[in-house]
Amino acid sequence: MASKAFLIALAIVATIVAPTRAKEIVVGGKDGWMLGMDYQAWADGIEFHVGDTLVFNYKPGAHNVIKVNGTEFKLCAAPLGAAPLTSGHDVITLAAPGRKWYICGVADHCHTGPMKFAITVQPGLGSPSPAPALTPPKPDAGAATGFGPSKTLSWLIAALAAFMMITA
Ligand SMILES: *[C@@H]1O[C@H](CO)[C@@H](O)[C@H](O)[C@H]1NC(C)=O
Ligand SMILES: [Cu+2]
Question: pTM of whole model > 0.85?
Answer without folding.
Answer: no
